[in-house]
Amino acid sequence: MTQNRLLPYVLIAPASVFLILLFVVPLVQTIALAFMDNGTASLTNFRKMVGDLNFGLSIGNTFLLVLAVIPLQLCMALVMAMMIQKMEKGRGLVLWIWIIPLGISDLAAGLVWLAILQDRGYFNTILNMLGLIDGPVNWLSYEAPVSLFVGVVLAEVWRATAIILIILVAGLQLIPREYAEAAEIFGAGPWTRFRRITLPLLKPSIQSALILRTVLAFEVFAVVYALSGRNFPVLVGEAYAWQHVNQNNGVAAAYAILVMVISLAATVIYIKALRTPPEMQP
Amino acid sequence: MTGLKQLLAATAFTAATLSGASITGAWAQETIFLSTQLRPVEEATKVRQIILKGASGPVTFVVEEPSPFQTRMDAETTAGKRTISMVGALHGELSPLLGSKALDPVDDLVAKAKERGVPDAMLTLGKLGTDKQMYIPWMQATYIMAAKKEALQYLPAGADVNALSYAQLKDWAKNIQDKTGKRALGFPAGPKGLMPRFFQGYLYPSFTGGVVSTFKSAEAEAMWATFKDLWAHVNPNSASYDFMQEPLMAGEVMIAFDHVARLKDALVAAPNDYVTFPAPSAGKGRGFMPVVAGLGIAPGAPNRAGAAAVIDHLLKSETQIAMARELGFFPVVKADLPTDLPGGIKLLVEGVAKTQGSQDALVSLLPVGLGAKGGEFSKVYFDTFQAIVLRNAPIRATLDAQAVTLQTIMNETKAPCWAPDKASAGACQIN
A249 at the B interface (CB within 8 A)? Predict the structure, then answer.
C-alpha cells in the first residue's frame, strides 16, 4: 500500500531532479547574475543594457520578426494541415517531407539560406542566368535592410512552420467527423464548416502551437546570426555578444531575464485570449 | 541471462576503473597546454608535431576559442581543481585571467627570457599592470594590408603603396570602383573580426595621436568624417567578414586590412598574386599595433615544472624560427629569420618589416590594465563605428555619448594611459 502511494513520486523523481539541476539552479544563478554587481544587489546591469546602442534596435527587430513570422506561419500551417486532412493517399509521405526542416538545427538552416541568398549564392546565380541582374546583388548587407529582413523571415518560415503544422494536424484528428457531417446536412459550405466548426474546436491546439512557436521566436538567434552577422541585432544575439564578445555576463544575464519576461508575458496573453472552457473542448 | 548481465556489468566496471586509472596516471606526468592561438587543425597539428617536438616530457596541446577558454579557466578556479597546467593566449585574453585568479606569477622564468633577448617593454606588458610577471611573451604578430597585384594599376598618381595615406587609400578604392564597378576594399568588421583593433591601433593613433585621451577630440571628429567617406568605397560585406583571407581568395575584395595570421592562407595559397604593405598614415603618423601572445602557468598547476620546461622550449631561438616558418608568427626572442622562407610567409614578414621600418611609424600598445573590461573597451570603438558609419548617427553626439561609457570603464579599472596616449598618474582621462 505504502509502496503504491510512493510509486508516482518515485517515477517523477528522475525528471524532477533533472529539471531542478539543469533548469531551476541555472535560472536562480542567472537571476543572481543579472541583479548583482561586484557582489551587491544592483540594477547596474539593467541600466547598462537599456543604455546600450543596440538595445532599442534589438527589441524592435525581435518584435518585428515575431509579428511578421508568427501570423504567416499560423496561416500557412492551417492551410497545410487542412490539405493533409483531405488527402487520401500519400499523407504520411507529404507530412514527412514537410517536417524535414524540423530535423535541421537552426544554425544549419541559417547556413542553408545563406548559401541561397549570399552574393554568390543560388538566388543570384538564377537571377543572373535569367538575365535579370548583371553582377552579384547584395541581399543581406546593412545597406539592404528590407531584403535582409525578408531573408530572415523566409528562413524562419521555412525552418519552423512545421512545429505549428504538427500540433495542428494532431489537433484536427481529435475533432469528431460527426460535427462537420451534421453541418453539411444543414447546408453549411466548406468555408462555413471551417470557420464555425474546425477553427473553434482547434483552438486549444492553436493555443499550444502559438505559445510554443512564439516563445521560440523570441529566442531567435542562430538563423539571424548566420544570415546577418551583426546587421540585424536581436535580443538573444545581444545576450550572446555581451557574454562572449564583451565578456560581461551580468548584462548577458539581464538580456536573458528580459527575454524570459517577454516570453512569459506572451504566454499569459495567449492563455487569456485563447481560453477554451472545458465544456467546449472536443 | 543474469550471467550475461553480470558479465556486462563486470566488464563495464573494469573498463571504467582502468580508464580512470590511466587518466589519473597520465595527468601526473603530462603537461596540458591550453591555447586560444593556432586553433585551425593544420596549425595545431604543426604545433604538436613540429613545434613541441623536443620539449622534455609529454605535452598535450589543446585548443579552445577565447570565450570557452575564459569560461574553462574560471570554472577550474571556482572548482579548485586544475587540469590545465599552462595557457597560451593573446595579451587581451590573458588579462581577464588575472581577475579570475587563473594565472600564477612566473617571475622565476624572467631571467631566462631576458637572456634569450625578449625585450623589456614586452616583458613589462606581461606584468598586466601588476608588479609580478604574469605571463612570458610567446610570439608576436601585427596587422598589415594585402592587395592583389592586379589592383596596383588603379593606384592614384604619385602614390607609393608602401607609404599610403588614408586619402590615397580612399582614392585607390574609388578608382577601382569607378573603373570596375566593384567595391574592392575590405575590413574585418564581422562578429569575430578584429576591427576594434584597427580603430585602437591604426585609425585613432594616425589621426589623433592617441586612443583614449583623444577619443572625442576635434581631430577624432574629422577622422570619423574622413573614414565615413572612405567607407563609401568599402565592400558592404565587410560587416560580415571575420578573416580577410576568405574574401581575398574568393575575389570579393582586392585590398584588405587584417591580422597577419588572418591573411596567411590567402598569401600562402598564391604568393605570386599579392603584395603586402603597411596600413595608411594620417596627420599624426602611421599607427601600428604589435600583438603579443603570452604563456602563463595556472596556480596549482598539476605539472608546474613541466609547464616551465615547455615555456623554456618554446622560447628557444630555433623553436621561435620554426614558428615563423610554419605558422607565420614572429619571434619575441633575438633570432634571425632565415632568408628561404616559404613565399606566403615571406610576404607576411615583408609586410611587417615595412610597417616597423616606416619613417612615420607610431607604435600603439595593446590596452593595459583593463582586466576583464577589455571586451567592453573594444565595444566602445566598434559601437562608435557602427553608429557613425553604418547607421549615419551624428558624429559629435555619438562621440560625446560613447565617451561617457569609455570614461566609466577607465575609472572603474583605474587603468592609466598607455602609448601613444601620454602617461597619466591615475585613470586615463578623455580630454
Answer: no
